[in-house]
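Open question from group meeting: does this chain pack into something compact, or does most of it stay loose? Before anyone orders reagents, we agreed to write out a predicted structure and look at it together. Recording both the input and the output here so the notebook holds the full record.
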Amino acid sequence: MERDSGPRVVVGVDGSQSSYAALRWAVRYGALIGAGVEAVAAWESPGGRVWPARAIDATFDEQRAREGLVQELRGALGAEHADTVRAYLVQGNAVDVLLGAGEGAEALVVGSRGRGGFARALLGSVSQNVAQHAKCPVVIVRPDAS
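Structure tokens returned:
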């Protein structure tokens, strides 16, 4: 992941309403502090942690996924604001990817619940792990907070 010099706000995006709220919050905060915003989405190969050899997902098209991420940003922010956000699609575990991306950032922003997990959980597993292990300030945004 190529990083800009200067202040950065990193936000995890997974297609959930909670992550879109986090994205909108990150863009507003970045504008207030003069920081660039990096939207990061992670993907894993199925069984990647189980098999000793790398599993291959024949149905995953990385280029199409990158284009989908850009379209999601435009849908959540509008074209003008989406064009100010750097989008990254990174292979790996979501927690590991976000913790790595957040190193040196002014803030790491995540939604309170992503696509997985139980609806009744207060925090999703990714947001909880990021909050516990990040080396920068973490902001957890509820979907109705945007």
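Observations to bring back to the group:
The first strand starts at residue 8 and ends at 12.
The mean pLDDT is 84.
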